[in-house]
Amino acid sequence: MKKEMKMRWFRVIFPVMLFVCPVMTFAQHDPGRWGDLGNWRYRNMILPADYSDPDVLRMGKDYYLISSTFQFSGGIVILHSRDLVNWKTIGYVIHDLPGQLKDPRFDYTVMDHYSKGIYAASLRYHDKKFWVYFTTYNGGGFYVATAKKITGPWNVQLMKDKNGVELFGLNWDDNCPFWDEDGKAYMIASNPQKNWFPILFQMSPDGTQFLDSNLLAENLPLNGQVSGVITSEFIITMTWAKPDTWMWIGLGTGFSFQFVYLSNQQNQFLL
């Protein structure tokens, strides 16, 4: 009797599930409700998924976007668009997290890095190459990846401090590079929970080494041995532009873009 009752319930519920589930799926991806509406208009969200800390690079008519991927593999998703509304995934910067990052905590046999990993990468094009700078927060590394094509293959390596030591075992984040017209290279980054404000460093022209600091030192020198310091909190985005000899550095705090700092060649920061 009980078996017959269960079968009756199954016969009733199963067809309902077959009808409801496709409707729910369709509602989540209905092009009439989000994204490209097909009439030269769009409606947010354009990407109904988690693409946190996005950084966008324009190359002619093409736009490329990268996003944080934390502990997931592949690492640092790459999307392409022609209109900033319709995006398509075209690859990843990292295909082997424990191997390319030299960090066994990402291996499936360890699985000790949930919700950590790759945060807030920056995408640039310089010297006929694509560059991606990123950190693996929570005792991780400071990395640079380069490729001649946006789809790769990507060469991933740890950056080095001024003494030539690979930068690993750190808690840095929010890194953003800049190459000046005189060939000099710079990097902005923050140190959450310790020095959670943007710090300006000078890099080697090839973008692989810091020239003015030892980030592995327990106490980071902030007395002129690094290129500059901006005091703020909760940095979520940093962008560069350079009219004449000034560099604009935009800072976001909390949930809004609130501050713009202006820096000249003497590293004097003005609000």
Question: Quick summary of this structure?
Answer:
This protein has helices at 2-28, 97-100, and strands spanning 35-36, 42-43, 55-59, 62-67, 75-81, 88-94, 117-126, 129-137, 140-147, 155-158, 168-170, 173-179, 185-191, 195-203, 228-229, 238-241, 247-253, 256-263, 269-270.
Main sheet: strands, sense, barrel? 5 strands, antiparallel
Whole-number radius of gyration? Answer: 23 Å
CATH overall fold name of the largest domain: Tachylectin-2, Chain A
Please name the CATH architecture of the largest domain: 5 Propeller
Number of helices: 2
Instruction: Determine and state the CATH class of the largest domain.
Output: Mainly Beta
The CATH superfamily of the largest domain is identified as Glycosyl hydrolase domain, family 43
* Apparent shape: globular
User: What percentage of the residues does DSSP assign to strands (E)?
Assistant: 35-45%
What does the average pLDDT come to? 75
Task: Tell me the series of helices and strands, N- to C-terminal.
Answer: HEEEEEEHEEEEEEEEEEEEE
Tell me the span between the first and last alpha carbons.
78 Å
Uncertain spans: 12-29, 221-271
Helix content: 10-25%
Structure summary, number of beta strands = 19
- Assembly annotation: single chain
Structural class: mainly beta
Number of domains: 2
What features would you describe in this structure?
The chain has 271 residues and is mainly beta. The protein has 2 domains: 110 residues, Glycosyl hydrolase domain, family 43 (Tachylectin-2, Chain A, 5 Propeller); 102 residues. The protein has 2 helices and 19 strands. Strands 7, 8, 9, 10 and 11 form a 5-stranded antiparallel beta sheet that branches. A 4-stranded antiparallel beta sheet has the order 3-4-5-6, with no helix packed on it. Strands 12-13-14-15 form a 4-stranded antiparallel beta sheet, with no helix packed on it. A hairpin with a 2-residue loop joins strand 7 and strand 8. The C terminus is likely disordered.
